[in-house]
Design goal:
Length: 274
């Protein structure tokens, strides 16, 4: 498996209608660019095994809170999954193979583990894209139960979400209804890639940051800010033709953007260099 094959498999998986995308497969194809020798099937089989073991522990009466309690006991007490508090920005926290092997992750990847296992025992969950801290909730109409997979499956209600939001931003932030809206599978995958993008930018690993942006653009081809960022990364990496193309497209999409003057200056520089 080489880099381009992993990208190809990722592109094929996400071309399907959102409800048909296999999240675990797509997340493993993201990981496969970093770890070309992994076998996604091995990790998918691990989820199947977890589900079989969990099924034996589930209560006979499937009340949601009791099922959640059983899942939490299995994932966190028995298997030892936990949030990586000590090294939150370690890129391994964003790669599903590492999360399964190390039993460590960040909110969104632990949420993905939780979703994959719960789906396999007929208790489907959906992602909730709360700013700064990804949550999940049971796929039950009108439910206001949320689960924090990063904090050992803590059960939360809207007031708890408000408190968590204040905690994340270290100041009072008004909880808006859209903060607790469910996210699509494409949005979830884009958020994993956005985490990797910012980690790699901070580490000055520009080629890896570019690879993350390119995959976000496979998910959302018209995303103006991602086009800008791909253009800026290409500029830094000396890929001037691609940089000019992306930055021109960005200005067409967002002519009044706050950074439009800076982007025009870079484009002028690129034209003088060509």
């Amino acid at each position: 498996m080489n880099f381009s094959s992993a990208r190809q498999y990722f592109a094929q998986e996400i071309q399907q209608p959102d409800e048909h995308i296999d999240l675990a497969k797509a997340a493993l194809y993201i990981a496969q660019e970093e770890y070309p020798n992994i076998d996604p099937e091995e990790y998918l089989n691990a989820f199947d095994t977890m589900a079989v073991e969990l099924q034996e522990r589930l209560p006979s009466q499937r009340y949601p809170l009791r099922v959640i309690q059983s899942i939490n006991q299995y994932l966190y007490d028995d298997l030892g999954f936990a949030g990586n508090q000590k090294d939150y920005y370690d890129p391994r926290n964003s790669f599903l193979n590492n999360v399964i092997e190390r039993r460590l992750g960040i909110p969104i990847t632990l949420a993905l583990v939780y979703m994959e296992v719960s789906r396999r025992v007929d208790f489907p969950m959906v992602g909730v894209g709360m700013p700064g801290h990804f949550l999940i909730r049971p796929e039950i109409p009108d439910t206001e139960i949320f689960i924090d997979a990063f904090n050992f499956g803590e059960v939360m209600f809207p007031q708890d979400c408000q408190e968590r939001l204040n905690q994340v931003y270290q100041q009072p932030v008004q909880l808006q209804p859209e903060f607790l809206a469910t996210v699509s599978k494409r949005q979830l995958l884009a958020r994993i890639l956005a985490n990797l993008k910012y980690i790699y930018l901070n580490q000055q690993e520009l080629e890896k940051a570019l690879a993350a942006v390119e995959r976000i653009l496979l998910l959302f081809p018209g995303a103006a800010l991602e086009l800008r960022d791909r253009g800026l990364l290409c500029y830094e990496l000396g890929l001037f033709a691609q940089a000019a193309n992306d930055l021109e497209t960005y200005l067409i999409k967002a002519p009044q953007a706050e950074d439009a003057v800076t982007i025009r200056q870079i484009l002028s520089l690129l034209k003088r260099m060509s």
